[in-house]
């Protein structure tokens, strides 16, 4: 069936001419000549058998018919443009890899690795989302999640990614004037203790690992690891941080760890994916690559 639709060029010339009320300025915007725009408008008027513009005292004036047509045409042009943009940005399901990861873990551990993966496998389009609650994850839209703890994602295949090690850290300014080499794990009780609100056992577990008796753990509490890290860097107290998060600040000298070496916790980081995606090329490729490189900090 032949559709009774004018040319897209004529419609674009009409829309631009209405906005500018000038064929000349419309032509400049569309990179056409003034005569070409004028010809397209004339063709459109012949197609519709209606006048869309009139000349009044050398000014271009939109007719009532033109105004009514413009009101109906613009939403259609917008819709066509949006549909085309969506198609241009549409993801190929065969090459898109959508990863959901804990925000801090992704920032400090995953991101430094993704560039190497992308270089090794450029055909995959990587998409990283924040993992705030594994229970809310839609397995239809997520290929892989990187998460913490022993709770596996329901109806998923899970792999051990790495064990967690934590270390007591603080800013050099917190210990200014003290002899660092003489400090021991038990000396932490002389300083403010910083806490992560979601890990209330961090300090008690660290104390047990150091063969120390638990006591008072009063001190500021923070909602996210990034906040805890920044609080420690600014000298607010001592924090128990995973080595994968504290590593950069320790290497840069923003933090120091004078209260003993890192200790391993009972927790782990896992790589999981829905069982029905176990054979997807992008899932298999990323899984194998990341597990191979998981011990490279």
UniProtKB/TrEMBL annotation:
SUPFAM superfamilies linked: Periplasmic binding protein-like II, Winged helix' DNA-binding domain
Keywords noted in UniProt: DNA-binding, Transcription, Transcription regulation
KW Lyase (keyword) present: no
Coiled coil found in the keyword field: no
Superkingdom per UniProt: Bacteria
Cross-referenced InterPro entries: LysR-type_TF_proteobact-type (IPR058163), LysR_HTH_N (IPR000847), LysR_subst-bd (IPR005119), WH-like_DNA-bd_sf (IPR036388), WH_DNA-bd_sf (IPR036390)
Domain HTH lysR-type: 6-63
Family: Belongs to the LysR transcriptional regulatory family.
Protein name: LysR substrate-binding domain-containing protein
Organism: Rhodanobacter aciditrophus
């Amino acid at each position: 069936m032949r559709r009774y639709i004018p040319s897209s060029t004529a419609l674009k010339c009409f829309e631009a001419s209405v906005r500018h009320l000038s064929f000349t300025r419309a032509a400049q915007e569309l990179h056409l000549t003034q005569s070409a725009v004028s010809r397209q408008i004339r063709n459109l008027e012949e197609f519709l058998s209606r006048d869309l513009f009139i000349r009044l005292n050398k000014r271009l004036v939109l007719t009532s018919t033109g105004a009514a047509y413009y009101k109906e045409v613009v939403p259609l042009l917008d819709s066509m443009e949006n549909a085309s943009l969506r198609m241009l940005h549409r993801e190929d399901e065969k090459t898109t890899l959508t990863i959901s990861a804990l925000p801090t873990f992704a920032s400090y551990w995953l991101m430094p690795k993704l560039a190497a993966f992308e270089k090794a496998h450029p055909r995959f389009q990587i998409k990283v989302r924040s993992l705030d609650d594994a229970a809310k994850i839609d397995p239809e839209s997520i290929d892989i999640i990187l998460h913490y703890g022993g709770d596996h994602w329901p109806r998923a295949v899970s792999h051990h990614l790495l064990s967690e090690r934590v270390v007591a850290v603080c800013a050099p300014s917190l210990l200014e004037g003290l002899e660092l080499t003489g400090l021991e794990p038990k000396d932490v009780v002389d300083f403010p203790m910083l806490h992560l609100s979601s890990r209330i056992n961090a300090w008690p577990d660290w104390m047990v690992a150091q063969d120390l008796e638990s006591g008072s753990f009063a001190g500021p509490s923070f909602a996210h690891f990034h906040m805890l890290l920044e609080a420690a860097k600014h000298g607010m107290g001592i924090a128990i941080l995973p080595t994968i998060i504290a590593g950069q600040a320790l290497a840069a000298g923003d933090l120091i760890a004078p209260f003993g070496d890192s200790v391993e916790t009972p927790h782990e980081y896992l790589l999981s994916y829905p069982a029905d995606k176990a054979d997807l090329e992008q899932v298999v490729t990323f899984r194998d690559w990341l597990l191979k490189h998981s011990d490279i900090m």
